[in-house]
Every structure is written in C-alpha cells, then in structure tokens.
Amino acid sequence: MKLSWQNPEDIALALIDRYPDKDPLTLRFTDLREMVVGLPDFGDDPAKSTEGKLEAIQMAWYQEWQDVG
Questions:
Q1: What is the pLDDT of residue 69?
Q2: Which of the following CATH numbers is that of domain 8-68: 1.10.10.600, 3.40.50.620, 3.40.47.10, 3.90.79.10?
C-alpha cells in the first residue's frame, strides 16, 4: 500500500520508524514535507501537500513519538 497525504497516521508510523530520535515538533514544515516525500512507500503527488496535512502528520508523529519515548 502506498502512503498518501490522506493517511497522516500511517505516514507518522513510517516517519517514526525511519527517524526514531527526531522530535517532530522541532521540524519546519518544509523539512517535514521533504521527509514525507522521501519515504520509500510514499506514492502521492508532492504538490498536494498543505499546511493542514503537514500539521496532521506532525501531530500524529508527535503522539507516537511520545508513546515510544
């Protein structure tokens, strides 16, 4: 299954696997976008990212990051 902007929780899980020590709240949205687009399973149009979608990914990632840490 390819990841898309519509799946912030799935993207968050992939990001925490790839960047386990990264605090998601320290990232700029431009950096977060590049990290998402760079995921091997990401298959959506990079141009379809929005601030709201990136914020949803960041918050889902932060929630997972807190649970793991």
A1: 67
A2: 1.10.10.600
